[in-house]
Amino acid sequence: MNLTEFFGHVEQDKALKGVDVILGPSPDQDCVVVQDLATGCKTQLLAGTIDRHNWETLREVVVGQRNPAPLYHVTRIVGYYSRVENWNKSKLGELMDRRQGDYRLTPEQLTEDLPQMQKSA
């Protein structure tokens, strides 16, 4: 969702009020401050966070129905656990390609390996 859509949703929502915009060192680090009128609590949201989430999720965070703790995605593709958020476009593309694979074993493949496993046991 872009910032214009976000501000439109805040204006239409009678329970919320846009309070402030704080400019950061880069556009995705700009912040928006939104107040929950029922509780008076103010929530600061990064523009990058607004770009990545839908209105329903963001609203739940602002009104206190959802924990705003960030979720980090990690994978072991590179040989050690690494946060995906730090990867460049090429490495993210490689991760998406690997996720599309079908790595399930067929019943035939499972029974082929069974005699070998029994011999080694």
Blueprint of the fold:
Blueprint lengths: L2 H10 L3 E7 L8 E6 L5 E5 H6 L2 H8 L11 E2 L6 E2 L5 H11 L7 H14 L1
Fold and architecture overview:
The protein has 2 domains: 3-62, no CATH class; 73-102, no CATH class. The relative contact order is 0.10. The longest helix has 14 residues, at 107-120. The termini are far apart. With 121 residues, the chain is of the alpha+beta class. The chain has 5 helices and 5 strands. The strands form 2 sheets. A 3-stranded antiparallel β-sheet has the order 1-2-3. The protein has a two-stranded antiparallel sheet with strand order 4-5.
Comma- or semicolon-separated keywords:
121 residues; alpha+beta; 2 domains; three-stranded antiparallel sheet; 18% strand; elongated
